Amino acid sequence: EKFKDGLSKTRNNFANKVNDLVARYRKVDEDFFEELEEILIQADVGFNTVMELIDELKMEVKRKNISDPTEVQSAISEKLVEIYQSGEKTTGHINIQEDSLTVILFVGVNGVGKTTTIGKLAHMYKQQGKNVILAAGDTFRAGAIDQLEVWGNRVGVDVVKHSEGSDPAAVMFDAIQSARAKSADILLCDTAGRLQNKVNLMNELEKVKRVIEREIPGAPHEVLLVLDATTGQNALLQAKTFKEVTNVSGIVLTKLDGTAKGGIVLAIRNELNIPVKFVGLGEKMDDLQAFDPEKYVYGLFS
Ligand code: GDP
Protein backbone atom coordinates (compact mmCIF):
# COMPACT_ATOMS: atom_id res chain seq x y z
CA GLU A 1 0.00 0.00 0.00
CA LYS A 2 2.80 2.38 0.90
CA PHE A 3 4.41 1.51 -2.39
CA LYS A 4 1.21 2.38 -4.24
CA ASP A 5 0.73 5.68 -2.39
CA GLY A 6 4.30 6.69 -3.03
CA LEU A 7 3.84 6.17 -6.73
CA SER A 8 0.62 8.13 -7.15
CA LYS A 9 2.24 10.97 -9.09
CA THR A 10 3.83 8.61 -11.58
CA ARG A 11 0.61 6.66 -11.84
CA ASN A 12 -1.33 9.81 -12.76
CA ASN A 13 1.20 11.02 -15.27
CA PHE A 14 2.22 7.74 -16.82
CA ALA A 15 -0.01 4.76 -16.19
CA ASN A 16 -3.28 6.69 -16.40
CA LYS A 17 -2.18 8.26 -19.68
CA VAL A 18 -1.48 4.83 -21.13
CA ASN A 19 -4.88 3.62 -19.92
CA ASP A 20 -6.50 6.66 -21.47
CA LEU A 21 -4.66 6.09 -24.75
CA VAL A 22 -5.82 2.49 -24.88
CA ALA A 23 -9.40 3.60 -24.24
CA ARG A 24 -9.32 6.23 -26.99
CA TYR A 25 -7.99 4.10 -29.84
CA ARG A 26 -10.08 1.46 -31.54
CA LYS A 27 -7.19 -0.14 -33.30
CA VAL A 28 -3.43 -0.20 -32.94
CA ASP A 29 -1.82 1.91 -35.66
CA GLU A 30 1.14 4.18 -36.25
CA ASP A 31 -0.55 7.11 -34.44
CA PHE A 32 -1.14 4.92 -31.42
CA PHE A 33 2.54 4.08 -31.19
CA GLU A 34 3.54 7.70 -31.68
CA GLU A 35 1.38 8.80 -28.78
CA LEU A 36 2.65 5.96 -26.64
CA GLU A 37 6.21 6.97 -27.43
CA GLU A 38 5.46 10.51 -26.32
CA ILE A 39 3.96 9.36 -23.01
CA LEU A 40 6.98 7.17 -22.28
CA ILE A 41 9.43 9.95 -23.10
CA GLN A 42 7.47 12.35 -20.86
CA ALA A 43 7.74 9.85 -18.02
CA ASP A 44 11.55 9.88 -18.32
CA VAL A 45 11.81 6.28 -19.46
CA GLY A 46 14.74 7.47 -21.59
CA PHE A 47 15.05 7.72 -25.36
CA ASN A 48 16.96 4.50 -26.05
CA THR A 49 14.77 2.49 -23.73
CA VAL A 50 11.62 3.89 -25.33
CA MET A 51 12.86 3.00 -28.81
CA GLU A 52 13.67 -0.52 -27.71
CA LEU A 53 10.27 -0.91 -26.10
CA ILE A 54 8.31 0.46 -29.09
CA ASP A 55 10.24 -1.78 -31.51
CA GLU A 56 9.52 -4.85 -29.45
CA LEU A 57 5.85 -3.94 -29.09
CA LYS A 58 5.52 -3.46 -32.84
CA MET A 59 7.06 -6.87 -33.45
CA GLU A 60 4.74 -8.46 -30.92
CA VAL A 61 1.71 -6.80 -32.48
CA LYS A 62 2.75 -8.11 -35.89
CA ARG A 63 3.61 -11.60 -34.68
CA LYS A 64 0.40 -12.06 -32.75
CA ASN A 65 -1.69 -10.14 -35.26
CA ILE A 66 -3.05 -7.83 -32.54
CA SER A 67 -5.34 -4.96 -33.45
CA ASP A 68 -7.14 -4.36 -30.15
CA PRO A 69 -5.33 -1.73 -28.01
CA THR A 70 -6.32 -3.45 -24.76
CA GLU A 71 -4.21 -6.42 -25.83
CA VAL A 72 -1.23 -4.14 -26.22
CA GLN A 73 -1.70 -2.79 -22.71
CA SER A 74 -0.63 -5.97 -20.95
CA ALA A 75 2.25 -6.34 -23.40
CA ILE A 76 3.50 -2.91 -22.33
CA SER A 77 3.82 -3.96 -18.67
CA GLU A 78 5.41 -7.26 -19.65
CA LYS A 79 7.97 -5.57 -21.90
CA LEU A 80 8.79 -2.92 -19.27
CA VAL A 81 9.59 -5.65 -16.75
CA GLU A 82 11.44 -7.68 -19.38
CA ILE A 83 13.60 -4.73 -20.37
CA TYR A 84 14.41 -4.05 -16.75
CA GLN A 85 15.38 -7.65 -16.13
CA SER A 86 17.36 -8.08 -19.33
CA GLY A 87 20.53 -7.84 -17.24
CA GLU A 88 20.48 -9.61 -13.92
CA LYS A 89 17.37 -10.15 -11.82
CA THR A 90 17.28 -7.75 -8.92
CA THR A 91 14.89 -7.55 -6.06
CA GLY A 92 16.85 -5.34 -3.71
CA HIS A 93 19.41 -7.99 -3.00
CA ILE A 94 22.31 -6.66 -0.95
CA ASN A 95 25.55 -8.56 -0.52
CA ILE A 96 25.25 -9.18 3.24
CA GLN A 97 27.94 -11.24 4.96
CA GLU A 98 26.19 -13.64 7.30
CA ASP A 99 29.08 -14.33 9.69
CA SER A 100 31.16 -11.19 9.54
CA LEU A 101 30.99 -7.43 9.22
CA THR A 102 29.28 -6.08 6.08
CA VAL A 103 30.50 -2.68 4.92
CA ILE A 104 28.29 -0.56 2.67
CA LEU A 105 29.64 2.66 1.21
CA PHE A 106 27.23 5.40 0.10
CA VAL A 107 28.17 7.87 -2.61
CA GLY A 108 26.23 10.68 -4.28
CA VAL A 109 26.03 14.46 -4.49
CA ASN A 110 24.67 16.63 -1.68
CA GLY A 111 20.94 16.91 -1.30
CA VAL A 112 19.99 13.67 -3.05
CA GLY A 113 19.00 12.03 0.25
CA LYS A 114 22.14 10.13 1.18
CA THR A 115 21.91 10.77 4.93
CA THR A 116 18.20 10.00 4.99
CA THR A 117 18.80 6.73 3.12
CA ILE A 118 21.54 5.68 5.54
CA GLY A 119 19.14 6.39 8.42
CA LYS A 120 16.34 4.41 6.79
CA LEU A 121 18.59 1.43 6.05
CA ALA A 122 19.99 1.49 9.58
CA HIS A 123 16.41 1.29 10.80
CA MET A 124 15.57 -1.57 8.42
CA TYR A 125 18.58 -3.65 9.46
CA LYS A 126 18.07 -2.89 13.14
CA GLN A 127 14.53 -4.15 12.85
CA GLN A 128 15.95 -7.34 11.37
CA GLY A 129 17.91 -7.73 14.61
CA LYS A 130 21.25 -6.61 13.23
CA ASN A 131 23.80 -4.54 15.08
CA VAL A 132 24.40 -1.43 12.95
CA ILE A 133 27.02 1.33 13.13
CA LEU A 134 27.22 4.51 11.06
CA ALA A 135 30.44 6.19 9.90
CA ALA A 136 30.29 9.97 9.38
CA GLY A 137 32.59 10.05 6.36
CA ASP A 138 31.28 13.33 4.95
CA THR A 139 33.66 15.56 6.88
CA PHE A 140 33.52 18.25 4.21
CA ARG A 141 29.99 19.61 4.26
CA ALA A 142 29.06 21.71 7.28
CA GLY A 143 26.30 19.97 9.16
CA ALA A 144 26.68 16.55 7.54
CA ILE A 145 28.10 14.99 10.72
CA ASP A 146 25.36 16.45 12.93
CA GLN A 147 22.69 15.35 10.51
CA LEU A 148 23.94 11.77 10.55
CA GLU A 149 23.98 11.90 14.35
CA VAL A 150 20.37 13.02 14.40
CA TRP A 151 19.49 9.90 12.38
CA GLY A 152 21.70 7.74 14.61
CA ASN A 153 19.78 8.95 17.67
CA ARG A 154 16.44 8.58 16.00
CA VAL A 155 17.11 5.00 14.97
CA GLY A 156 19.15 4.14 18.05
CA VAL A 157 22.51 3.21 16.52
CA ASP A 158 26.05 4.45 17.22
CA VAL A 159 27.73 6.99 14.96
CA VAL A 160 31.52 7.12 14.63
CA LYS A 161 32.65 10.67 13.85
CA HIS A 162 35.62 13.01 13.80
CA SER A 163 35.54 16.79 13.61
CA GLU A 164 34.59 18.68 10.46
CA GLY A 165 37.41 18.90 7.93
CA SER A 166 39.22 15.81 9.17
CA ASP A 167 40.39 12.93 7.00
CA PRO A 168 37.46 10.67 6.00
CA ALA A 169 39.80 7.69 5.65
CA ALA A 170 40.70 8.06 9.34
CA VAL A 171 36.99 8.08 10.20
CA MET A 172 36.56 4.79 8.30
CA PHE A 173 39.53 3.24 10.09
CA ASP A 174 38.08 4.15 13.49
CA ALA A 175 34.60 3.03 12.47
CA ILE A 176 35.91 -0.40 11.51
CA GLN A 177 37.77 -0.78 14.83
CA SER A 178 34.64 0.28 16.67
CA ALA A 179 32.48 -2.12 14.64
CA ARG A 180 34.87 -4.95 15.53
CA ALA A 181 34.95 -4.07 19.21
CA LYS A 182 31.15 -4.07 19.31
CA SER A 183 30.79 -7.14 17.06
CA ALA A 184 28.65 -5.10 14.69
CA ASP A 185 26.98 -6.78 11.71
CA ILE A 186 26.66 -3.82 9.39
CA LEU A 187 28.66 -0.64 8.92
CA LEU A 188 27.01 2.06 6.81
CA CYS A 189 29.49 4.68 5.60
CA ASP A 190 28.61 8.20 4.48
CA THR A 191 30.99 10.01 2.10
CA ALA A 192 31.29 13.54 0.77
CA GLY A 193 29.66 14.22 -2.59
CA ARG A 194 31.51 16.91 -4.43
CA LEU A 195 31.19 16.51 -8.17
CA GLN A 196 32.70 19.90 -8.96
CA ASN A 197 36.18 18.48 -8.65
CA LYS A 198 36.24 14.99 -10.08
CA VAL A 199 39.90 14.36 -9.29
CA ASN A 200 39.46 15.25 -5.60
CA LEU A 201 36.34 13.15 -5.37
CA MET A 202 38.09 10.20 -6.95
CA ASN A 203 41.15 10.53 -4.72
CA GLU A 204 39.04 10.76 -1.60
CA LEU A 205 36.87 7.78 -2.50
CA GLU A 206 39.93 5.75 -3.46
CA LYS A 207 41.61 6.52 -0.16
CA VAL A 208 38.51 5.63 1.82
CA LYS A 209 38.12 2.38 -0.11
CA ARG A 210 41.79 1.51 0.34
CA VAL A 211 41.49 1.74 4.12
CA ILE A 212 38.36 -0.40 4.11
CA GLU A 213 39.90 -3.00 1.77
CA ARG A 214 43.06 -3.21 3.83
CA GLU A 215 41.17 -3.74 7.07
CA ILE A 216 38.58 -6.12 5.67
CA PRO A 217 39.46 -8.15 2.57
CA GLY A 218 36.49 -8.18 0.18
CA ALA A 219 35.00 -4.97 1.58
CA PRO A 220 33.26 -2.68 0.82
CA HIS A 221 30.62 -5.26 0.00
CA GLU A 222 28.41 -2.71 -1.73
CA VAL A 223 28.97 0.77 -3.12
CA LEU A 224 25.52 2.33 -3.39
CA LEU A 225 25.02 5.45 -5.45
CA VAL A 226 22.16 7.59 -4.19
CA LEU A 227 20.23 9.46 -6.90
CA ASP A 228 17.29 11.87 -6.66
CA ALA A 229 14.47 10.74 -8.98
CA THR A 230 13.07 14.28 -9.22
CA THR A 231 16.21 15.42 -11.06
CA GLY A 232 15.37 13.17 -14.03
CA GLN A 233 17.98 13.04 -16.76
CA ASN A 234 20.42 14.91 -14.51
CA ALA A 235 20.45 11.85 -12.27
CA LEU A 236 21.64 9.83 -15.26
CA LEU A 237 24.51 12.27 -15.79
CA GLN A 238 25.52 12.04 -12.12
CA ALA A 239 25.47 8.27 -12.36
CA LYS A 240 27.75 8.35 -15.40
CA THR A 241 30.26 10.53 -13.55
CA PHE A 242 30.27 8.35 -10.43
CA LYS A 243 30.65 5.26 -12.59
CA GLU A 244 33.84 6.80 -13.95
CA VAL A 245 35.36 7.44 -10.52
CA THR A 246 34.34 4.32 -8.60
CA ASN A 247 32.76 0.86 -8.91
CA VAL A 248 29.09 1.37 -8.19
CA SER A 249 27.32 -1.89 -7.31
CA GLY A 250 23.80 -0.56 -6.98
CA ILE A 251 21.56 2.48 -6.94
CA VAL A 252 19.21 3.89 -4.36
CA LEU A 253 16.64 6.06 -6.11
CA THR A 254 15.16 8.56 -3.66
CA LYS A 255 12.11 10.84 -3.80
CA LEU A 256 10.20 8.61 -6.18
CA ASP A 257 7.13 9.88 -4.31
CA GLY A 258 7.96 13.41 -5.46
CA THR A 259 8.08 12.80 -9.19
CA ALA A 260 5.56 12.08 -11.91
CA LYS A 261 8.40 10.74 -14.03
CA GLY A 262 9.03 7.39 -12.40
CA GLY A 263 10.13 5.93 -15.73
CA ILE A 264 13.61 7.07 -14.74
CA VAL A 265 14.02 3.72 -12.92
CA LEU A 266 13.96 1.93 -16.27
CA ALA A 267 16.26 4.41 -17.93
CA ILE A 268 18.84 4.01 -15.17
CA ARG A 269 18.74 0.25 -15.36
CA ASN A 270 18.81 0.07 -19.11
CA GLU A 271 21.28 2.81 -19.91
CA LEU A 272 23.79 2.35 -17.09
CA ASN A 273 23.40 -1.35 -16.45
CA ILE A 274 23.44 -0.79 -12.69
CA PRO A 275 20.60 -2.36 -10.70
CA VAL A 276 18.30 -0.18 -8.61
CA LYS A 277 18.37 -1.85 -5.19
CA PHE A 278 16.19 0.45 -3.10
CA VAL A 279 13.70 3.24 -3.72
CA GLY A 280 12.84 6.11 -1.38
CA LEU A 281 9.14 6.89 -1.11
CA GLY A 282 9.09 9.61 1.55
CA GLU A 283 11.03 11.32 4.32
CA LYS A 284 10.21 8.99 7.18
CA MET A 285 12.12 6.06 8.64
CA ASP A 286 10.03 3.34 6.94
CA ASP A 287 9.82 5.05 3.58
CA LEU A 288 12.42 2.84 1.92
CA GLN A 289 11.63 -0.28 -0.08
CA ALA A 290 13.64 -2.96 -1.77
CA PHE A 291 13.11 -2.45 -5.47
CA ASP A 292 11.21 -5.15 -7.29
CA PRO A 293 10.59 -4.35 -10.98
CA GLU A 294 7.47 -6.52 -11.27
CA LYS A 295 5.90 -5.00 -8.20
CA TYR A 296 6.81 -1.57 -9.50
CA VAL A 297 5.43 -1.88 -13.02
CA TYR A 298 2.31 -3.88 -12.12
CA GLY A 299 1.75 -1.57 -9.14
CA LEU A 300 1.72 1.40 -11.49
CA PHE A 301 -0.85 -0.05 -13.84
CA SER A 302 -3.11 -1.69 -11.29
P1 GDP B 1 22.02 14.41 1.53
O1 GDP B 1 22.55 15.80 1.41
O2 GDP B 1 22.26 13.63 0.27
O3 GDP B 1 22.49 13.70 2.74
O4 GDP B 1 20.43 14.56 1.60
P2 GDP B 1 19.45 14.44 2.84
O5 GDP B 1 19.40 13.06 3.35
O6 GDP B 1 19.73 15.53 3.80
O7 GDP B 1 18.03 14.71 2.11
C1 GDP B 1 17.73 15.94 1.48
C2 GDP B 1 16.24 16.19 1.58
O8 GDP B 1 15.53 15.20 0.84
C3 GDP B 1 15.70 16.08 3.00
O9 GDP B 1 14.76 17.10 3.20
C4 GDP B 1 15.03 14.71 3.06
O10 GDP B 1 13.99 14.65 3.98
C5 GDP B 1 14.53 14.58 1.64
N1 GDP B 1 14.37 13.17 1.21
C6 GDP B 1 15.28 12.18 1.24
N2 GDP B 1 14.78 11.03 0.74
C7 GDP B 1 13.49 11.29 0.35
C8 GDP B 1 12.43 10.51 -0.26
O11 GDP B 1 12.55 9.33 -0.59
N3 GDP B 1 11.26 11.17 -0.49
C9 GDP B 1 11.08 12.49 -0.16
N4 GDP B 1 9.90 13.05 -0.43
N5 GDP B 1 12.05 13.24 0.40
C10 GDP B 1 13.24 12.66 0.67
TrEMBL record:
GTP binds at residues 108-115, 190-194, 254-257. It catalyses: GTP + H2O = GDP + phosphate + H(+). Its EC number is 3.6.5.4. The keyword RNA-binding does not apply. Residues 275-288 form the SRP54-type proteins GTP-binding domain. InterPro entries: AAA+_ATPase, P-loop_NTPase, Signal_recog_particl_SRP54_hlx, SR_rcpt_FtsY, SRP/SRP_N, SRP54_GTPase_dom, SRP54_N_sf. SUPFAM superfamilies: Domain of the SRP/SRP receptor G-proteins, P-loop containing nucleoside triphosphate hydrolases. Pfam families: SRP54, SRP54_N. CDD domains: FtsY. It is found in: Cell membrane; Cytoplasm. Belongs to the GTP-binding SRP family. FtsY subfamily. This is Signal recognition particle receptor FtsY.
